[in-house]
Amino acid sequence: MKPLAYRMRPTKIDEVVGQKHLVGPGKIIARMVKARLLTSMILYGPPGTGKTSIASAIAGSTKYAFRALNAATDSKKELEAVVAEAKMSGTVVLMLDEIHRLTKPKQDFLLPHLENGRIILIGATTENPYISISPAIRSRTQIFEVKPLSPADIKEAIERALHDSQNGLGQMKIKLTPAAMDHLTNATHGDLRSTLNALELAAKSTEPEQESATITLDLSVVEECLQRKALVQDKNGDAHYDVISAFQKSIRGSDADAALHYLARLLEAGDMISVDRRLLTIAYEDIGLANPQAAARTVNAVTAAEKIGLPEARIPLANAVIELCLSPKSNSAISAIDAALADIRAGNYGDVPNRLKDSHYQGADQLGHGTEYKFPHDYPHDWVQQEYLPAKLRTRQYYQPKENGKIEQAYKKQYDSLRAAQKNKGPR
User: Fold this and answer.
1) pLDDT greater than 60 at residue 415
2) What CA dihedral angle connects 295, 300, 303 and 309, to 10 degrees?
3) Which terminal residue of the chain has fewer beta carbons within 10 Å of its beta carbon, N or C?
4) Architecture of the domain made up of 247-326
5) Residue 360: its pLDDT value, please?
């Protein structure tokens, strides 16, 4: 009676679907497993992206005992049982779900066992661990981000489940139509658990054809079992991403009616996740410094939408879409950071000026670190002329202000004034 997603969990690290930045050849977790030098870790990311699978695969590849608990629902007594097992039989890999809800008594009990390596803790959370997890736990773990699976990753997992006769659906004669496969790979936005469980429901609730005993799963069956409609059918399966692209480009192009149309298509397909992500990106990428308050209001709208859910969520989302469409636009911030990143990636960076180096340690003054630093608050207008960029980049200008809104016009005026003051060694 265990669900398909549970049965298909990997037992070896090379069976993990996706997350190649962690488990691919030569990557950090693969190296830990190969060397059998495991450290406790926290995996954070969206649901259904493989956090528990990675923990299970680590245990299977290293032959350590594997136990799974939930920080919110399992008591200290269950933790004590795992520690007792580790004392008797050796190292235990403990998967602790919802680790951000670990209480202080449980935390205090676990800490010494993490220190001596008796317990290899693999914590899982959908929350930002730098905010939600206590410093005591963070300082004893490595933190790795688990990313949403790509459609190609999801398709790989589906095909593996369809052909696996022992744990998957390989004993059933299943025919998945191309449209159904496209919808399964795209509709859950990287949540493999939801995908596999919907696939199993579809397969076991669809009557086979009498003569061939084939179970045909078409788009309508998959839509019903996922409870998510396909946006439109197309030959290449790209329609979903085409609509998301059109949504952002319509807002960037200031066409409120088109943007509302694509918003409606995404919401009707149940894809509020993509809407939320796109709106937050658009607010900072396309509107940016021309209207910073629009970005703040977009964050509030997305937060409200997530709290109240559909269908009411359509209201704050529509508010945000209309405001972003009608707002002045500026991409100066993304252009500025991309220009700076291009320099770094090309190796075009220099030494931090001595005056800016850390001086909070004995002997720093002998190295000339921080000795010539001028504290801006000691000067009129809390500003003083001094060089901040590395010497070889002294003339670089990453930020190129635009003048599409009153706010960035004011930023431009201040930016130009400060640059002139730096060059002239005094305020303009």
Assistant:
1) yes
2) -110
3) N
4) Up-down Bundle (1.20)
5) 78
